[in-house]
Design a protein that fits this description.
With about 300 residues, the protein is mainly beta. It has one domain: monomeric porin ompg (Porin), CATH 2.40.160. Helix content is about 0%, strand content about 55%. The protein is built from one helix and 20 strands. The strands form four sheets. A twelve-stranded antiparallel beta barrel has the order 1-4-5-8-9-10-11-16-17-18-19-20. A two-stranded antiparallel ribbon has the order 2-3. A two-stranded antiparallel ribbon has the order 12-15. The two termini are about 25 Å apart.
């Protein structure tokens, strides 16, 4: 399952949300749908690490930080209301740490997210089938974590609303391609500071969080036994400032990233609906984000209790 696409912080925590953890029709951002009455339960574990990060467009290290590490446990669920309409929910638990310096990491439950995906068009022809989907979702914090403590914050503390379009083509050879793109609106947040610098001095504890435009292109193979794909992804903030030289990041920073990834899923023989999956990706370009390598692995179970 892929939850709503967000770059949550400079720490790269949000990259957990962007990795494809594929299964049979259980993601708001893929080109597959669950059948009516199907329920998909997923539990994942993931880890992201980086030593270098972009301070604005300058790639650098920070010896007072060392190697940054974030871990995530992610329970998720999906439900097929109909063969065209699917609903999704997810709630990650995240912990952060680093190998140097005196700063203490954070841990806790982050943001509860909900999403709906609707199959808009399905057109069959001799060589394959073309689909389009529309998705919408929102998220909000469920714990009183501190957002203005990057890179150790487990989230940005904003309420979000997003919309997305997906185009998906399945060839009769079982190869497929998927393109998806979306826009996320984010609310302002309250911080403990009374002023901050945003190209000028701002005397307020209320801070805007930049909106995000993101997308991905995926090529893969899918049959009844396994699925595998490679993908290219991007996320761009529509506003925000750069991290100032030798300063800490904060939620109004412009956080852009491009990354490439691979993922796979294997249905367990002899156990209907049970699958194992794994994914990995590497950030290859960015602005005010970590040059992170991320991996996840998990298990999912798809069943229809109403049959």
């Amino acid at each position: 399952m892929r939850t709503i696409s967000l770059i949550v912080s400079m720490a790269g925590i949000g990259l957990f949300m962007l990795i494809s953890i594929h299964g049979r029709a259980q993601s708001p951002t893929d080109g597959f749908t669950m059948s009516k009455g199907e329920i998909c339960l997923v539990t994942d574990y993931g880890q992201t690490k980086w030593k270098e990060y972009w301070e604005g467009t300058r790639l650098r290290e920070n010896l007072n930080l060392g190697t940054f590490n974030a871990r995530m446990i992610m329970p998720m669920a999906g439900y097929g209301v109909t063969g065209k309409l699917n609903l999704f929910a997810g709630l990650p638990h995240i912990s952060t740490s680093s190998t140097a310096g005196q700063m203490t990491g954070m841990k806790g439950w982050q943001d509860l997210s909900f999403a709906a995906k609707y199959k808009l068009i399905k057109k069959k022809h001799e060589q394959g089938t073309f689909y389009t989907f529309l998705t919408a979702g929102f998220s909000f914090p469920v714990s009183d974590y501190i957002p203005d403590f990057l890179p150790y914050s487990i989230g940005l503390g904003a309420t979000t609303v997003n919309g997305r379009v997906i185009a998906h083509y399945e060839h009769k050879s079982k190869f497929f391609t998927t393109f998806q793109t979306g826009y996320t609106l984010k609310s302002n947040i309250k911080t403990d500071r009374q002023s901050y610098y945003n190209e000028r001095q701002v005397n307020s504890s209320e801070m805007p969080v930049p909106d995000v435009w993101d997308g991905a292109f995926r090529v893969g193979f899918n049959n009844k036994r396994f699925r595998a794909d490679v993908d290219y992804n991007w996320s761009t903030s529509t506003s925000g400032s750069d991290i100032r030289r030798n300063d800490m990041p904060y939620p109004f920073n412009k956080m852009d990233a491009q990354w490439i990834g691979i993922s796979g899923l294997l249905w367990v023989p002899g156990v209907e609906g049970l699958a194992l999956h794994a994914a990995a990706d590497q950030v290859v370009g960015g602005r005010n984000v970590g040059k992170a390598f991320t991996w996840t692995a998990g298990v999912q179970y798809v069943f229809n209790p109403f049959k």
